Amino acid sequence: MTDDARRSAPAAARNRDPILQALKPHLPPSGLVLEVASGTGEHILHLAQALPGLRWQPTEPQPEGRASIDAWAAGLPNVLPALPLDAAGDDWPVLRADVVLCINMIHIAPWAAAEGLFAGAARLLGPGGLLALYGPYHRKGQKLEPGNAAFDAELRQRDPAWGLREVGEVAALAGRCGFGAPEVVEMPANNLMLLFRREG
Length: 200
Known about the structure:
- With 200 residues, the chain is α/β, with parallel strands linked by helices.
- The protein has one domain (3-197): Vaccinia Virus protein VP39 (Rossmann fold, 3-Layer(aba) Sandwich).
- The chain has 6 helices and 8 strands; from the N terminus they run αβαβαβαββαβαββ.
- The strands form 2 sheets. A 6-stranded mixed beta sheet has the order 2-1-3-4-8-7, with helices on both faces.
- The radius of gyration is 16 Å and the shape is globular.
């Protein structure tokens, strides 16, 4: 794989350290982390380098994205080759995981992708297993910050099925899929980390 396959997302360089610091206390010392919608692959590269005791399984629907992920992760023994995965579908290429991670996906996808994400994570995770979501969210009764409001409007203009999700709606979906209430971690730039545990 040549460096030409590597894609870059400027936001990844800004948020990868805060994401690592927010996740680290909640991750097991070993096991498999499945990342849904790995994007360019820059997040999983950073996390895998910092947490070598874990095995990391990246996924991405598009072949160009998978090529970028594999190029970034080349030579890292704890990162598996990227697999195709449609979050909204029932046919996931992984049967079991200790952690499911999803960064910046559910606001740039139809709600069916969020439903599929929770259903799929519920199938893969055992009791106490972690589903971690990162991104911008809306909180009921609170006005969106100007940056997030503009981003939300832009997303909805691009696709009416997209847009920032309300934390309570995401938590309700999680509950229907067998997860407990989220631990909410405040993140820089008006983002949140939502940490869900699979109930037994």
